[in-house]
Design goal:
Number of strands: 13
Strand order of the largest sheet: 3-6-9-1-10
Number of helices: 13
Structural class: alpha/beta
CATH topology of one domain: Helicase, Ruva Protein, domain 3
Order of helices and strands: HHEHEEHEEEHEEEHEHEHHEHHEHH
Helix content: 40-55%
CATH superfamily of one domain: Magnesium chelatase subunit I, C-Terminal domain
Shape: globular
Radius of gyration: 20 Å
Distance between the termini: 26 Å
Length: 327
């Protein structure tokens, strides 16, 4: 903890050292997820931006391990949901059950009622079950039989999916993908990390030795500190210019939504705080534009036939939209 500071706009700044706390959590996750500092950092950015994370990659590269390691590093409630074709919406959100003794309905919370929810292989559930997450992820509440139940904060959904195996899967609809703040791919580990993994994990699962280094109250304080970071008018205009450029791009059938711009700015605030700054730079926006915007975009037919990727389109947008100078 540090003394309160003054931010660039003259308001009272955070009393918590976001960079130091973030480094502790990242180091703890790094004990399990080795050689993936950028991936760990992005997961922390999403956590502090009060967003949700989609981890998309081939099997066996550590998607679920990353989600579990982040959950284990925070002393908060954690639930894991294995998404399968027979999973029902009520398994996720909960259900009202009639109690014969009280002659009334009693709400039984589902697995979504936790601070960190690990949604494993989310694209294996039916569209009806996937849609049960829409209200939870956006409004942080669950409505059952006309009654709304608020979810605890912090609230983070970390979902994993395999982009290659399509049999028995249901692609995430655009409305659901738009609710994920960022998408990341783990990628294969480097040689040294893979050698260390073969030596260390022969008999012991490192997740079982991981202890929390923060709690829910600390994370809420960090989130509050991130929300107070200064963002200049020029940076806000830069974010709007990027999302508007995506809507005009001839390579896209669907550009970035207003929600995308809002979450890009929130993520940029979190990234700036993790570096110890009290203000957001255009560099923060540029570094996060790919992970935050790419999964929300739909390519045009010509772009898809040309084997272009959303990441390439975002890179082109960054090269064409003028970058503001200064703070």
């Amino acid at each position: 903890m540090t003394e309160a500071t003054r931010t660039a706009d003259g308001t009272s700044g955070p009393s918590v050292d976001v960079a130091a706390e973030g480094a502790r959590i990242a180091a703890n996750i790094g004990r399990v997820v080795q050689g993936k500092d950028d991936v760990v950092r992005l997961s922390l950015v999403v956590l502090l931006a009060e967003g949700h994370l989609l981890i998309e990659d081939v099997p066996g590269v550590g998607k679920t391990t990353l989600a579990k390691a982040l959950a284990a590093s925070i002393d908060a409630t954690v639930r894991r949901i294995q998404f399968t074709p027979d999973l029902l919406p009520s398994d996720v959100t909960g259900v009202a059950i009639y109690d014969q003794e009280t002659r009334g309905f009693e709400f039984k919370p589902g697995a979504i009622f936790a601070n960190v929810v690990v949604a494993d292989e989310i694209n294996r559930a039916s569209p009806k079950t996937q849609s049960a997450l829409l209200e939870c992820m956006e409004e942080r509440q669950v409505t059952v039989d006309g009654i709304s139940y608020e979810l605890a904060r912090p609230f983070l959904v970390m979902a994993t999916q395999n982009p290659l195996e399509m049999e028995g899967t249901y692609p995430l609809p655009e409305a659901q993908r738009d609710r994920f703040t960022a998408r990341l791919s783990m990628g294969y580990p480097d040689r040294e990390s893979e050698l260390a993994m073969l030596g260390d994990r022969g008999t012991v699962d490192p997740l079982t030795t991981l202890s929390p280094v923060a709690d829910a109250a600390t994370v809420r304080e960090l989130v509050g500190a991130v929300g107070g970071l200064h963002v200049s008018e020029a940076v806000r205009r830069y974010v709007v210019a990027l999302v508007e450029a995506s809507r005009r791009s001839p390579d896209l059938r669907l550009g970035a939504s207003p929600r995308a711009g809002l979450q890009l700015l929130r993520a940029a605030r979190a990234a700036a705080a993790l570096t110890g700054r009290d203000h957001v730079l255009p560099d923060d926006v540029q570094a996060l534009a790919g992970p935050v915007l790419s999964h929300r975009l739909l390519l045009s037919t010509d772009a898809a036939l040309g084997r272009r990727s959303p990441e390439q389109i975002v890179a082109e947008l960054l090269s064409t939209v003028p970058v503001p100078r200064g703070r």
